């Protein structure tokens, strides 16, 4: 019984002092397209949270890379329609990062419902996440 009084507080102390592990998450994906003379322009965005932040000299830094695939209404796939890397630093811990992409689609693109999927990799630890949303060409 005495061991329980020692072990339980010790476990609570260890759990309380351990580093909080946050899940890498992509949220609020949005996408909309509008017509141009030469086709369509897709504006797509998403937000990412739970990424690794390194602290050095009172500044926080984070690095993620991303790409976006688009599924067409006729079952096709436009791989890596957009891609990039975000390297950001801040004097304060960051809550999230914004991903924004502008993608040109050809004038002959099939009308209908499309699906865009953002694939995110946290360069700090290699974790991955994804999120999708739909948009329409009409």
Specify the number of helices: 1
Radius of gyration: 21 Å
Write down the overall mean pLDDT.
89
- How does the overall form come out from the CA principal axes? elongated
Helix content: 10-25%
Helix/strand order? HEEEEEEEE
Which stretches are low in confidence, meaning pLDDT under 50 for 5 or more residues running? none
Tell me what portion of residues adopts beta-strand conformation.
Answer: over 45%
Terminal Cα span: 72 Å
* Estimated structural class: mainly beta
Q: Give me the count of strands.
A: 8
What kind of sheet is the major sheet?
A: 5 strands, antiparallel
Structure, explained:
With 138 residues, the protein is mainly β. It has 1 helix and 8 strands, in the order αββββββββ. The chain has one helix spanning 2-17, and strands at 25-36, 39-49, 54-56, 59-71, 77-90, 97-106, 112-122, 128-137. Strands 3, 4, 5, 7 and 8 form a 5-stranded antiparallel sheet that branches. The chain has a 3-stranded antiparallel sheet with strand order 1-2-6, with no helix packed on it. It is elongated and about 70 Å long. The termini are far apart. The mean pLDDT is 89.
């Amino acid at each position: 019984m005495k061991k329980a009084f020692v072990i339980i507080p010790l476990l609570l102390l260890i759990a309380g002092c351990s580093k909080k592990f946050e899940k890498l998450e992509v949220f609020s994906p949005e996408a909309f397209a509008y017509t141009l003379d030469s086709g369509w322009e897709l504006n797509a965005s998403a937000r990412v949270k739970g990424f690794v932040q390194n602290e050095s000299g009172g500044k926080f830094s984070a690095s993620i890379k991303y790409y976006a695939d688009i599924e067409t209404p006729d079952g096709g796939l436009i791989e890596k329609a957009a891609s990039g890397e975000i390297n950001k630093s801040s004097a304060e811990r960051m809550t999230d990062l914004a991903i924004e992409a502008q993608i040109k689609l050809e004038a002959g693109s099939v009308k209908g419902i499309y699906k865009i999927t953002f694939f995110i990799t946290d360069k700090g630890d290699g974790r991955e996440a994804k999120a999708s949303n739909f948009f329409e060409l009409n």
